[in-house]
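Q: Can I see a sequence and its folded structure?
A: Here is a first one.
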Amino acid sequence: MSDYRIKGETGEWEVVIGLEVHAQVTSNAKLFSGAATAFGAEPNTQVSLVDAAMPGMLPVPNRECIRQAVRTGMAIEAQINKWSRFDRKNYFYADLPQGYQISQLYHPLVGEGSLHIEADEKAGIAADKVIGIERIHVEQDAGKLMHDQHPTMSYVDLNRSGVALMEIVSKPDMRSPAEAGAYVRKLRSILRYVGSCDGNMEEGSMRADVNVSVRKPGDPFGTRTETKNVNSVRFVMQTIEYEAKRQVELLESGGTVDQETRLFNPDTGTTRTMRSKEDAHDYRYFPDPDLLPLELDDAFLAECRESLPELPDAKRARYEAAGISAYNAGVLTAEVESARWFDALLETGAEPKAAANWVTSELFGALNRLGKDIADCPVTPAQAGELLGLVADGTISGSIAKQVFEIMLETGDGAAAIVEREGLKQTSDTGAIEAVIAEVLAKNPGQLEQYRGGKEALFGFFVGQTMKAMQGKANPQVVNELLKKALG
């Protein structure tokens, strides 16, 4: 249960949120044509005769687009409909050359599923929660109007026309901006694990229509507004905060909320009216006469299921079972590239808990400092495994490992070669360590007297002085044992 409330003059209000996420399908071509879909191409260079709606051109469904949508449905444990159908959604717009969009209103490819978001007290999510997903349908994208290319005219770029989209429609189950943010992050993570969408919100390959209404707790749902094409998690959360407050102020001043479509302005963090909200009958939906229904056989569904990778929740549970903390498991599984890199590290034989601590602190810290992500990591999982192996078998200490790692980042050399070349091997030679301890105690008689007088916290001081004198190359465990003896 979310305790997020809008405090109005007449009391507290609850916000009700549903999201329609449009995710561009990762595929070799558009939904109904063979045209390319690469981002950033010159305008109108990726347009087939089908996309341009030339007379007599007939659409042919792209099998890979259907396959990716089915795999996505399976990843959220949704009902896969073996029989589905395409409908025409009719409206006029300059970037829609057909005069209609091919979508799926009445019989979508994927039915009901769900998505699990985790409790996060810092973010304001008090408990784990399951968000219902109503459906995933497949549809074609429209083109794009370019208003900044000419002083008096708008240009039309049809590169996006016909690109395959999955529209993933949630139930109105979210009750706070934090829950909505967690839902989008989790959904994006699943899409990227599955490989059905790259999740790149800045490039527009994943964007959300945000449905918001408010009500007094326990009352029926209020009238909702829909804010279109919001392209970051932060903006989704800002849209909800602004819309909820706007609607509460409107209702408390005696006004009514219009069911309408709105646009979010990221510069001001506000929304504005775009148009009044159409109902389904305004679009005159009817079955597309150029396309046969989609019928999926058991062999196709079995192939889709077998092709699914280990998904974030399962991976996280596996990591926790191996002794990795819940926090580290969450960090490591949030992005698919990090999880793959970490799995490759575990395959080298690295101890899971130590490896997770090292990756989340040392490795991620270094990458952050260098402005790189895990895909550009200068150190391979095999090299990292070698470094951690040298710490585990006592060849080098943890502090020396940090020095070796810095040299690895700069040179790309292996850990063992660096340790050999720089003479960094850890010593467990008890005679050498005992001699240094005797020297440290002789140089610090005041501290020695205080320690023996009961100030046991000074033990750490003696450890530090011994390690410093041995340039960090002494085995800390042996130092501790021998110091305890020497201090009696």
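Q: Show me another, different protein.
A: A second, unrelated one:
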Amino acid sequence: MLTNIKFNQLGKIESSIQFKHLYLLAFTLYLLPLLSACTRLPNVQGKGEDFMQGVWNQDSVAYSNKLSNYTKHHFKFTCDSVYIDFETHSKVNFYEDSCYNNGIWKEYAKGVYGVKGDTLIVGATFTHANYKQKISGCYRIGRYERNFLIKKKSADTLVLESMSDQREITLSLKEKVTCVQKEL
């Protein structure tokens, strides 16, 4: 029995457990599940997806000889980080003459990725070749936000379809990478 009931001289019931202790117990029992549900995440990067860890190259682009512009992709996935090199070929000059570079140029981006179901979600920032943030200069600056449909994945091939322009990117695994999580 939780309480020991006594009668005082006036015939009123007294309890050996005071009500304030009962309220404190009820409040503690209410908070306990809430506090245990909140856990601090470790201060290290995420593991990413095992099947994506590595260096992946797009060796060719379908119908590239008929396109006015196209981009070849080079991805490096390590843990939850992604490094992307873009090699763009263009027959049309979209930039200043000093940036056009005879229609071939490289761009770089660094960021994080996630896979949800059959979708690869990339959130990155355009960088210089050393992957330090780029805030001015030729070509694109700012954020690179893309979603890709993962159409096929195997040990050495990854086929992505850009959800923004429906272009297919067929990547070949060039080097497997083992994730070694780093502190943030």
